Amino acid sequence: MKPFFCILSAFFLLLGLSVCSAQAAESGDAGQPSSAPKAKILVAYFSATGTTRTLAEYAADFLDAELCEIVPETPYTPADLEYYTGCRADQEQADPAARPAILGDMDHLAQYDVILLGYPIWHGQAPRMISTFLERYDFSGKRIVPFCTSHSSGIGSSDTDLHALAPDAVWHSGTRFAGDTSREEIEAWAANLELTPSAVFDLERRTVLLNSGYEMPVNGLGTYSLHGDVCIDAVKSALASGVRLIDTASAYGNEEEIGQAIREAISEGTVRREDVFVTTKIYPGDEMEAPEQSIQSCLDRLGLEYVDLLLLHHPDRNDVRAYLAAEQFVRDGKIRSLGLSNWYVEELETFLPQVTVTPALVQNEIHPYYQENDEIPYIQSLGIVVQGWYPLGGRGHTEELLNDPVILEIAAAHDVSSAQVILRWNLQKSVAVIPGSSNPEHIRENTELYHFSLTEEEMSRINALDRGEKHDWY
Ligand SMILES: Cc1cc2nc3c(=O)[nH]c(=O)nc-3n(C[C@H](O)[C@H](O)[C@H](O)COP(=O)(O)O)c2cc1C
To answer: Exactly one of 45, 76, 112, 252 is catalytic; which is it?
Structure first.
């Protein structure tokens, strides 16, 4: 058997990485969509007698993925595999703590977004070597897609037992194949896997590439509750401070002011239209009942030629219809990307199969007291960017959050404000932020998030503040 890590694949990997960096640099033209990110896929497998290997090869061929064999340090002889005789394999399977050693090193795993993990079923479970493999490497944030072969058993408890060995991975449900599964059957299975990678935040450029191919700034200004001249001044002050994302909604009643502020900033030479990312939303009820008119009204009130991102503000009985109408605006070039606000796992599971364009973004309430730790990895695993509203706790709660002793201590350690710590914590979780403020000093401070970073320990301390405490009704 050949060891799985070869110099050639490492070389191609490096080559692939440099190509990726070049693409990211090109995507700097905010006016043009880049191609949506593609997942880097590895097919890793263990196979004692070659059955799983054949299917792994079919999958890797089809997905254009790297193939890598998990090789035991001590090879299994035919006698080791004589099951129900008390052979070596029987003994290992009878001992949950057994961890047969793996040959070589697989540090290049870090480069992959998705790992298809193949193995034979041994006594209804994955061979213990798969446990060795999962415990040895860091699978945080990676998607793992298990598949197995067996004589006749199903995938059994291996489909869920393995999760505890890589708890920070996003696990797909596994699939069992018979030994004589054809190439076509594997291709059909592989074609239906949702393998879009999680969008990667580029904190140097302060942007993230959406699945629509457009770049979005990872921090912006929320404008809920801003009206009239206060709103116009806040938006212009934000643009002057370098904020490049303005979030509004039909329901905020301030789209006209937002449009006016941006047009003024353009004519004053502060920004170009293509530098500013504008999000708006249509509301349930009347607006979603007549989505064509309500979306056109948003465009008219903003008066900025196009909208960068249109969100459905909340789930509604007409939400699918409204979204499909919005898809037509994307095809017509009047809206660039689509997304959802206040959508959670259950709603997404029902909604997504009914629409054509995968949302680029989901915007939900997220702050240290309401962290959505179950929701965020799920949404991100679909290649959808998560953005948090109320990042500073929301009306009536901001003071308590900003004075939380843990936050204050971390802020003091970095010589920044509590707000900056909370916003930075979001960014390090790949959650985009849109704090609202009309105070130019606060607006500026909320953009200064890139000269410091939180340690893992500080991130964990903030993670521990979660109370599941929602501060608004949505
Ligand atoms: C130790 C051992 C235990 C096995 N236990 C099962 C089992 O519980 N159910 C089953 O259907 N097949 C079982 N098999 C058969 C293998 O799962 C099957 O032949 C598999 O396709 C072999 O894959 P491979 O050639 O990639 O090693 C077992 C095989 C061995 C060696």
So the answer is: 252
